[in-house]
Amino acid sequence: MKLNRVNIRRVVKGVLIGLAVAFVLAQFVPVDRTNPPVETRVDAPAEVVAVLERACYDCHSNETVWPAYSRIAPISWLVAYDVNEGREAVNYSTWNRYTAEERAELREETWEELAEGEMPLKLYPLLHTDARLSQADKDVVRAWAGDGERSGAERHEEDDDDR
Q: Which of 129, 162, 144 is nearest to 95 (CA)?
């Protein structure tokens, strides 16, 4: 079969129609965008919580703000995947489930991810400009992470466990 302009147009038209149909059908694939109840707030100074809320909570808490683009497939699949992965790594809304040792480790990991530029994910601050972290923001998180020091509430909790 010899390809001429008419045949090429038919092929392109068929491909475009196929893509449009696939896009419409993809919208019917269900995506879980739920926010389970918040069990507790992360035990941190207010300035640390403010940084975490701006740059981390959409993926690492049960307080995810689901933007309009999170309702359009296939982007919705990627956003839901990132949120599920983030909550699995650390969920600041279930901070009470972690032991004092785990919390200290998670604070340190939080700082390391920020310091190494691994978090927030590269694309996130492009779409959420308030998630761009200044050096002052990073310094606040670094001080919170400390060298594994526990907060007052965690020391009290561990003291209670020792009794």
A: 144
